[in-house]
Amino acid sequence: MQKGNLAAYKYEDSKTSKKIPSLIINWKWGLPALLIFILLAALPIYSFGLNPGTLFLTVAVIVVSSVVFYALNSRNEVVIVSTDYFFLGGRVYLYRNIKRAIKDASLLVLEMSDGRCCKIECEKFPTGARKDWKIEKNKKEKYEKVANKILEKVKSQNPQAPVKENG
């Protein structure tokens, strides 16, 4: 998906993006929403007393609010590639800070100047295909597209960084 000079690709990075960033970003809206939903759930019983109609309204409010709360606290995991940086798993990586890049057939390893390491794996790109050969082909195409864009930007913004491409 292309938005202006940003390109976003779905990516399943379970070890980094599920931990802190989604809670920090979404609790800003999630906690007030949870409190509002609790008040909305109690409102029918408080207003009209306890009867089957108010119990139905309370259950309906709880179901709707839990769906909305889940939507607020879940986030799509993406790799966003821009002109000066890329965003993965709640972190921003500047191309000029990449010290070394190694691209294999199914893994891109980027070593930063501060010692951090970023790995982009071919297997973590989701696809809607059902057949095994098609899944493998789609994942490979997405990986190649993202890896080549990132390496192209690394080469242009940080020419002294060694870029090694295997296979």
Helix content: 40-55%
**What is the rounded distance between the termini?**
27 Å
The secondary structure category is alpha+beta
Shape: elongated
Radius of gyration: 22 Å
Strand content: 15-25%
Mean pLDDT: 80
Major sheet attributes: 5 strands, antiparallel
Low-confidence stretches: 16-25
Q: How are the strands ordered across the major sheet?
A: 1-2-3-4-5
SS field, number of helical segments: 4
Give the tally of β-strands. Answer: 9
Helix-strand sequence: EEHHHEEEEEEHE
What does this structure look like?
It is a single chain. The chain is an alpha+beta fold and 167 residues long. The protein contains 4 helices and 9 strands. It has helices at residues 14-17, 21-48, 52-73, 132-157, and strands spanning 2-3, 6-10, 78-81, 85-88, 91-94, 98-103, 107-112, 117-121, 163-165. The chain has a 5-stranded antiparallel β-sheet, covered by helices on one side. A 4-stranded mixed β-sheet has the order 8-7-6-9, covered by helices on one side. Helix 2 packs antiparallel against helix 3. The longest helix has 28 residues, at 21-48.
Care to give the gist of this entry?
This protein is 48% helix and 23% strand. It has helices spanning 14-17, 21-48, 52-73, 132-157, and strands at 2-3, 6-10, 78-81, 85-88, 91-94, 98-103, 107-112, 117-121, 163-165.
Walk me through the topology.
Blueprint: E1 2-3, E2 6-10, H1 14-17, H2 21-48, H3 52-73, E3 78-81, E4 85-88, E5 91-94, E6 98-103, E7 107-112, E8 117-121, H4 132-157, E9 163-165
Parallel strand pairs: 6-9
Antiparallel strand pairs: 1-2, 2-3, 3-4, 4-5, 6-7, 7-8
